[in-house]
Amino acid sequence: MRYRKLYTYILTALLVSVAHQRSAFGQDGDDPLDVSYERQVLPIIKAKCFRCHGSKKQEGGLRLDLAESWLAGGDSGPAIVSGSIEENTLFQRLITSDKSARMPLDAARLNDSELQLIRKWITEGAQGLVDVDDEEHWAFGAITRPDIPTSENFPSTHSIVDSFTTSVAHEVNRELAPSASVSTLIRRLHFDLTGLPPTPEAVDSFNADFTEQDYEQLVDKLLASPAFGERWGRHWLDLARYADSTGYESDRPRQIWHYRDWVISSFNSDRPISEFILHQLAGDLLHNATPDMHIATGFHCNAMKDPGVRHEAVFDRVNTTGAVLLGLTLECAQCHDHKTDPLTQSEYYQLYAFFNTSDAVPFDLSDEATRQANAEVDNKIADVDKSLITLKQEITDTLDALIANGIKQPEGIPEGLIAIFNIPSAERSKSETNQLVTFFEKESPRFESLTEEKKQLEATRITPTTSLALRFGQRPTHLFIRGNHTQPGDEVIASAPSFLNDWTVADGSHGSRIDLSNWITSPANPLFARVTANRIWMRLFGDPICEPENDLGIQTARPTHAKLLDYLASRLLETDSFKSIIREIVTSSTYKQSSAAKYRKGVPAGHFIGQKRLRLEAELLRDNALAASGLLVNKIGGPGVFPYQQDGILQNRATPATWTVSEGADRLRRGMYTYIWRLTPHPMVTIFDGPEMTTACTRRSRSTVAIQSLALLNDPVFVECAQALARRLLTSHETDAHRIEWMFKSCLGRNPSIDEAATIQELLEEHTELYRLNEEHIEFAIGEYTVQGMDATRHAAWVATCRTVLNLDEFITRE
Question: CA-CA distance, 229 to 265, in Å (whole number)?
């Protein structure tokens, strides 16, 4: 009971307001004033309603692309009655719980933000109706660099990004939020660009006289850091559905970590985006393809793999290409023409044809000496195999000769084989012949010698280093009737959807994955650059410019910041560089805004007034604790590692799996190197909303459940980090005041306030008294991180205090 009481105090301490804790997950915002039909409501109506109520089709007699048609209405009467929600047929059909009556039919319900805008527009009088040309969807139009907004009211320090965000903010009579504090900016930038917290030394170096030049130098330093490739590589691995096992019930291990390392290296070297995509889609087909180019095709070898359902892997390649590179739900056309986007089923299988000709196979990465040595062994094994085949034929010929000479029962033959022996060779089955040959082989000293020689040769063969990669082959492709692979329809040839940019290939060519990649990244393609710029923005703000980020199809409304998105997309096409776009965004005043909730209050969705507080992702939570405690090992690349995880995680699998905790430095490496069993991932990934790794994860969710707090408090890794942090404080600083200050810098990236320092000191004294009364728990609290000459009671109190700080909301949050 005394033990439980002790840790009840520790749990209670987590509630202490040391760091001005605030929710990282709340959505601020009141109803906006003066809702604009053309700018805010029309994009929703156009995306969600024009399919059935536009110029081409008027279900129920209702047409919404013409202003007068709203008032005329359809079979059910006027669509709109200004000022009255209850009398508005349209709005009531949007919110009804009756799925058979709710609009839009056969599509997702409008989200709360969209309904809120329409409701507000109606209650304000439903003003601003205009006639609309619904022929071209905004995202399918060509990308052109928009005019940059200008105003005398814009500060001189505004970047181009700021001009777009400020001009839209002014439309709702708002300004951008002021800049966050220097310490918050430094910490935000470190997490966003490297996934690691700033060191106490970095905090000290930038807190005094911090200038814009200092900030830009820090940006460049972090972009050049090897940790940048790990941070942004992890984002890409989510899209690539990366894992170290095959998935499905078998869930067997496979060698593909070289692909993960290639992604990290590509981001660090700022590989041109077009080349980054080309190598992943078609590296194996390039002239004089290097091993790295083959490794890159692991992008489409990451899918879950079941040898019995090859077509599912090809479906995955098509659907992943659509979601990741085009922002389209291509899978909707597997069985029939797409219900909303202008994609036919035939066009889906034309895309399928690009990937149907290829398979994921191990690509040999061994050095020349290893390959040559293995080739020599293989040649010798081939010679032995030839000798074995010759011996087998000799035995068969001898058997036939014996029978021809009238011998009925050769000496030594088992009784069970006599009947088979006496069957004429022309009448004997292959199985029966093999039984006889096998018997005489075993009786042959030469066969025994050759078999042993082959066994010894195979033992000398060096196990090659491999990585899964695509290998091209020839295979016809047929449309699957209703998506059923057992019902092939017409044959199709590889081509791209006709509703986007033109598809061109060399004369006489049907097109290859090289052509597909060039078509996707072409400046004429309206989707790739928009989708990519949208995701980059999302990584830096928590929300994308365009929602949802994985579907820019017909049903997705034109975003509030469509011009900003097109500007960033045009810049992406110009620079062909991830780092350039990221740098332009993070050096803007828009990025530097405070994340205080008050600045977001009353702001319409999609305006990006104020930054957003975000809980760190699963991998970063552990990385952050390891870094703050000084335990993190910054080794890049290599096979997956096995940090501590609870017993029993791998039990009850359909196939056995092992998890032997790595020794030494590997145990303390970044989370992105943790080995990923698809069926049984590390519990931190599951608890903190990591990707499921079954399909491309374009955006992680963020849940808030009680088990997350318990995991951070009790997981042995976090306990060990607290122990290591306490030892670090005690061995590096002489006074409690200096230790508290350094702990705040290490864990929270800032200095403590006077009140916070006093609260921590008080907490430390309380823990000291608790351990003085519960000495039997001291050894357990300190663990292996003892400090010679240090009072054990005080040491244990510091560990408990460190555990408290490592569990603060501020510690696990990117402000």
Answer: 6
- Strand ranges, E, within 392-493: 466-472, 477-480, 488-492
In this prediction, residue 12 carries a pLDDT of: 44
Beta-sheet pairing, 466-472 with 614-615: unpaired
- Whether 369 has a pLDDT exceeding 70, the answer reads yes
CA–CA separation, 33 vs 36, rounded Å?
A: 9
Residue 492 lies in domain: 272-365+465-524
Q: What is the pLDDT of residues 502-556, one digit of tens each?
A: 888 766 667 899 999 999 999 999 999 999 999 999 999 999 999 999 999 988 9
In angstroms, the CA 325 to CA 354 distance is: 15
Q: Cα separation of 690 and 701, whole Å?
A: 8
Q: What are the contacts of 210-217 at 24+ separation with CB within 8 A?
A: 210/182, 212/157, 215/185, 215/587, 216/587
pLDDT in tens, 703-746: 999 999 999 999 999 999 999 999 999 999 999 999 999 999 99
Residues 332 and 476 in one domain: yes
**DSSP-based three-state secondary structure for 670:** coil
Mean pLDDT for the chain? 88
CA distance 486 to 308: 13
Confirm if 403 and 422 have CB atoms less than 8 A apart: yes
Rounded CA-CA distance 612/29 in Å is 13
Q: What is the pLDDT of residues 691-704, one digit of tens each?
A: 999 999 999 999 99
Would you say 188 and 158 are in contact if contact means Cβ atoms under 8 Å apart?
no
Residue 533, in any domain of the structure: no
What separation, in Å, do the N-terminal and C-terminal C-alpha atoms of the chain show? 39
Cis ω before 104 (30° cut-off from 0)? yes
CA distances from 89 to 73, 77, 591 (A): 9, 8, 42
Please say which residue of 108, 127, 146 terminates a domain.
Answer: 127
Q: Are 462 and 370 in contact (CB under 8 A)?
A: yes
Report how far residue 91's alpha carbon sits from residue 109's, in angstroms, rounded to the nearest whole number.
Answer: 12
Spatial separation of the C-alpha atoms in residues 452 and 381, rounded to whole Å: 11
Q: Which two tokens stand for residue 288?
A: 């004089």
Torsion sign across C-alpha atoms 774, 780, 782, 788: positive
Q: Is residue 144 part of a domain?
A: no
Who wins on pLDDT, 793 or 17?
Answer: 793
Total tally of structural domains belonging to the chain:
4
